[in-house]
Amino acid sequence: MQNLKVIVVGAGMGGLTTALAMRQAGYQVEIYDRVRELRPAGAGISLWSNGVKVLNRLGLGDEIARIGGPMEHMAYYSKTGEKLTAFSLSPIVERVGQAPYPVSRTDLQSMLLTAVGPDQVQLNQRCVAVEQTADSATAIFESGHRATGDVVIGADGTHSIIRTEVLGQPVERRYVGYVNWNGLVPASDELAARNSWDIYVGDHQRASLMPVGGDRFYFFFDVPLPKGTENQPERYREELSSHFSGWAAPVQTLIQRLDPAQTNRVEIYDIEPLETLVKGRVALIGDAAHSTAPDLGQGGCQAMEDAWTLANLLLTTNLGVADALERYQDSRRERVAQVIRKARKRSDMTHGKVPAKTRQWYAELTQEDGTTIMNAISETILLGPMN
């Protein structure tokens, strides 16, 4: 189909990638976001090869390679610093045909926003409803503005208003069971090798360091805690020192070097896989469609896959917008449901939902040469639409 007008609600990585894909298809695009200033949620993202391939196709390959980190190795350590397993990630690259690029969310957002054009995003526009006819769809905003096009894309995140409109009812998010602290620190050999993703595990907790651009590490800490535990930024260092008391020297050094004012602390939620991703001329993408725990590192990648798939189906189908959106739903529904379920299963194993299984995983890591881990990562990547 040609000469479509696309309304994108949400200017996160999914919304901006969608806007670029739609524009590349030759469509007119309008982008709206509820915030006054675009600020990405979280410090970093492990952008695996399936997401990178979408960016390559959109003409951003050189730029994502420049801002991404050189993640060439992976290593697991016990909480006290004993190496459990370490291996090169080159077999993944050879198998899937693209290196991963962990990246700071600010750098990724800036890259996408520059490509779209910062003046193309209309801010301070909170979507409150959508309407549609047989020939058009309209996003309605709190300001009174109405944006009408051939299709409306709900890229408005995990608290999506458009999801409620599509489903006819709100979706309750599910607490996965742990709290995540994350941020950025300058790279240092005292913390980890600059080309390695290092993960420390023990007591159902994790501490992780991953290289991103700008000679920095993206770090995160995971701790299973009850829902609603008090969030006190001024106590982050003290809190982490308590949770990770006795852990290896790099973990202690990381805690001392992180900037509490620049550290995020979030409770991790997901949603149950949805049966419905579209309604007529309205489609959901990204966290609005499949908010998932970050334990597979696939949240952003799946949003990018959504964007590419939807644009491609609109471009190659001549039976109408609603038909193309139904094909999008059929293409993506099981793919994203599988990612939600796999991430949930991995989170449960990593964070001690069944303590015996977590202990077994620790033991298996000591016998791991990387093959099992890399096969699981590669399988997830290769199920995507870019392969």
- CATH top level assignment of the domain at 5-66 and 105-172 and 272-349: Alpha Beta
Extended strand count: 18
CATH superfamily of the domain at 5-66 and 105-172 and 272-349: FAD/NAD(P)-binding domain
Radius of gyration: 21 Å
Major sheet size, sense and barrel closure: 7 strands, mixed
Stretches with pLDDT under 50, minimum 5 residues: none
Oligomeric form? single chain
User: Can you list the strand order of the major beta sheet?
Assistant: 5-4-13-14-15-12-16
Please give the CATH architecture of the domain at 5-66 and 105-172 and 272-349. Answer: 3-Layer(bba) Sandwich
Mean pLDDT: 96
How many separate helices? 13
Helix content: 25-40%
Distance between the termini: 24 Å
Description:
The model has no long low-confidence stretch (mean pLDDT 96). The two termini are 24 Å apart. The strands form four sheets. Strands 5-4-13-14-15-12-16 form a seven-stranded mixed sheet. The chain has 13 helices and 18 strands. The protein has a domain at 5-66 and 105-172 and 272-349: FAD/NAD(P)-binding domain (3-Layer(bba) Sandwich). It has helices at 13-24, 49-57, 61-67, 90-96, 105-116, 161-167, 236-243, 249-257, 287-290, 299-316, 321-350, 355-365, 371-382, and strands spanning 5-9, 28-32, 44-45, 73-78, 83-88, 103-104, 121-122, 127-132, 137-141, 146-149, 151-154, 174-186, 196-202, 205-212, 216-224, 264-270, 278-279, 282-284. It is globular and about 65 Å long. Helix 4 (90-96) packs parallel to helix 13 (371-382) and helix 10 (299-316) runs antiparallel to helix 11 (321-350). With 387 residues, it is of the alpha/beta class.
